[in-house]
Amino acid sequence: MLYSKTTPEAKRRLLRELLVPGAARQFPGAFNPLSARLIEEKAYDGVYISGAVLANDLGLPDIGLTTLSEVATRAGQIARMTDLPAIVDADTGFGEPMNVARTLQELENAGLAGCHIEDQFNPKRCGHLDGKNVVDLPTALKRVAAAAEARRDANFLIMARTDVRAVEGLDAAVDRAKALVDAGADAIFPEAMKDLREFEAVCNAVDVPVLANMTEFGKSELFTRDQLAGAGVAMIIYPVTLLRSAMGAAERVLDTIRTEGTQEPAVESMLTRARLYELVDYGSYNTFDAGVFNFTVPGPTDA
Ligand SMILES: C[C@](O)(C(=O)O)[C@H](CC(=O)O)C(=O)O
Ligand SMILES: [Mg+2]
User: What general EC class does the enzyme of this chain belong to (predicted)?
Assistant: First the structure.
């Protein structure tokens, strides 16, 4: 009922235990608080909160238009709905190193277990698109060091993302990853790796957990959990998968209503009313007020 009773501190401790090299923990991207519940119910390890999803959800492209307040508020709403640790995409940190420090503290306040900060500059873009720009090494290091310095809970995970692979190649990306760890990064997100060998090279070069981004329609093949575990990856994200799936379903049902004059043929593939109520834990609210849920709901719960 209501929100998770697991404290942010406990979630951060849990995250630290989960992120073992080769464990390949799976973090699907939640597109709203309710989908975080679904992720937890399906026994995933954690929840990812994608910057692309937060921007796209507002009808905006993922080019650094969202603000720290928007991201912290929405990420907080998602994180509080689940006992799982949630990691949020903090893009470039929302400004200069001083702003990155504030970003870190706001995300701690919002109950996140960790975040990643990247080395692109604005206007940034999806890491799997061509034509990216990255900041120089000293600036990238300053961002991470500022975040580490601002942190109040030592278990809040600061992950450094580097977009250098697509700009200067793998060797440069490996060098930058090492330098980011030296500057205080607790984990590395090497963006736009081409193949498993590249993931392996990064995992071998640093002794912190490494993330693999399995985003669809990108530069990386969609590797399986076993393949990524074999390469030494600690954590896998599926950042936009649920949003793409939900919007795909929404588009199809809109077409059905338009062509058939009714949604009837699509009802079979919908989440039933009963299942939806189960997910929002409607029944438990009876412990507060027996008059809240005193009716029966038609339909199977597992459709
Ligand atoms: C991981 C990512 O940063 C995100 O915002 O989810 C994106 C995902 C995407 O656009 O597919 C990325 O830059 O890879
Ligand atoms: Mg992003």
Answer: lyase
222 and 138 in one domain?
A: yes
- The C-alpha atoms of residue 41 and residue 79 are separated, in whole angstroms, by 14
| 225 and 178 within one domain | yes
Kindly give, in sequence order, each residue whose CB lies less than 8 Å from that of residue 35, ignoring residues fewer than 6 positions away: 242, 246
> pLDDT tens per residue, the chain (303 residues)?
999 999 999 999 999 999 999 999 999 999 999 999 999 999 999 999 999 999 999 999 999 999 999 999 999 999 999 999 999 999 999 999 999 999 999 999 999 999 999 999 988 989 889 889 999 999 999 999 999 999 999 999 999 999 999 999 999 999 999 999 999 999 999 999 999 999 999 999 999 999 999 999 998 899 999 999 999 999 999 999 999 999 999 999 999 999 999 999 999 999 999 999 999 999 888 777 777 778 888 887 765
On whether both 190 and 82 belong to a single domain, the answer is: yes
Dig out the tokens for 160 from the structure.
Answer: 């450094």
180 Cβ contact list (under 8 Å, min separation 6): 140, 141, 144, 160, 162, 188
Tokens of 42: 């399906």
Q: Assess if residue 61 is contained within a domain.
A: yes
Q: Give me ligand 1 centre to Cα 287, in Å.
A: 41
- 174 and 80 assigned to the same domain: yes
Note whether ipTM > 0.85 here. yes
Both 229 and 252 in one domain: the answer is no
Residue 233 C-alpha to ligand 2 middle, in angstroms?
19
Residue 193 lies in domain: 8-239
Catalytic residue among 116, 143, 151, 244: 116
Provide the CATH number for the domain around residue 146: 3.20.20.60
Q: Which of 53, 88, 129, 213 to mutate to test the pocket of ligand 1 (most atoms within 8 A of CB)?
A: 213
- Using the 3D structure, point to which of 183, 208, 239 is the last residue of a domain: 239
